[in-house]
Design brief:
The chain folds into 2 domains: 213 residues, Phosphoenolpyruvate-binding domains (TIM Barrel, Alpha-Beta Barrel); 41 residues, no CATH class. Helix content is 43%, strand content 14%. It is built from 12 helices and 8 strands. Helix 9 links the parallel strand 7 and strand 8.
Length: 285
């Protein structure tokens, strides 16, 4: 469905990225609506206006109204809403139900497929649901959540997951939930999952964190700061050297595999095709 003409002067910094491929997902607290325009003009592939953890209970009503007004002015964004088990969930959905420029909803603390489906039922038909898995119960239910008709992608709420399970933030401790979400997404034939945010690091530290994200089969990352988006986009995109390698493999083996002469070449071609697909999406030569 096409969006209505914008009534404001500022467009996003780049052409829209298909959310199935989006790398950087910037969370913006809805308690500070003056930040919405800056986020829209930033480098993030997707912005998420947060009326859940980013807003205290006493400020939910005002934040929800600010989001509805901004979207109603022709802007487009995702919205993170409160968990289906909270008293705020129905009010969040009521405020968004008629919004034509709502890109989709990130549902917090998902622990069943039925929660995602009940959310979708209260929104415009076809509104995509990004399911945020943040607990042991949610991780155990991940296959059911991923198979829900309403869910198009999973995201990892790593901070709340650590609080729920007692895991620390090390790559070793977090490898199991990341792998579980990646394998589950592949088995359900949905887009690869989005990793949780990395806090309190410089650009080099964020690049290292993104290397772990890629290694675990995840292709997106939540961002807490505007400056994070450019780093994440670069780190989660194919490099020029990777793209050159992929083109050379496809040239040698053929896009249809007609040049394959050994079993070891088939996975090479599959990887090359995946790289070139993402390179094309992000405009990498």
């Amino acid at each position: 469905m096409s969006s209505p003409a914008r009534s404001h002067d500022h467009a996003p910094a780049h052409d829209p990225i298909d959310p199935a491929h989006a790398r950087s997902w910037q969370l913006v607290t809805a308690a500070e609506p003056d930040r919405f325009d800056d986020a829209e003009r930033g480098e993030a592939d997707a912005i998420i206006l947060d009326v859940e953890d980013g807003v205290p209970d006493s400020g939910k009503h005002a934040a929800r109204a600010a989001v509805a007004a901004w979207l109603g002015d022709g802007h487009r964004a995702w919205v993170r809403i409160n968990a289906a088990t909270t008293a705020f969930w129905e009010d969040d959905l009521a405020a968004l139900a008629g919004c034509e420029t709502l890109a989709g909803v990130m549902l917090a603390k998902v622990e069943s497929g039925s929660q995602a489906e009940a959310t979708a039922d209260r929104l415009r038909p076809g509104t995509p649901i990004l399911a945020l898995v943040e607990s042991a119960t949610g991780l155990e239910a991940a296959p059911e959540i991923a198979r829900s008709h309403a869910v198009f992608r999973l995201a990892f709420g790593s901070g709340d997951f650590r609080r729920d399970t007692g895991f620390d933030a090390s790559d070793v401790a977090m490898s199991y939930p990341r792998a579980r979400l990646a394998v589950t997404s592949r088995a359900a034939r949905i887009a690869p999952p989005i990793d949780g945010p990395t806090l309190g690091v410089d650009a080099d530290g964020l690049r290292l964190a993104c290397a772990t994200t890629r290694a675990m089969g995840m292709t997106g990352k939540l961002c807490m700061h505007t400056a994070d988006a450019a780093v994440v986009n670069e780190a989660l995109s194919p490099s020029q050297s990777e793209t050159r390698w992929a083109h050379s493999v496809i040239e040698r083996l053929g896009r249809d595999g007609s040049g394959i002469r050994s079993g070891s070449e088939r996975p090479q071609l599959a990887e090359a095709l995946k790289i070139t697909e993402r390179a094309e999406v992000f405009g990498i030569a």
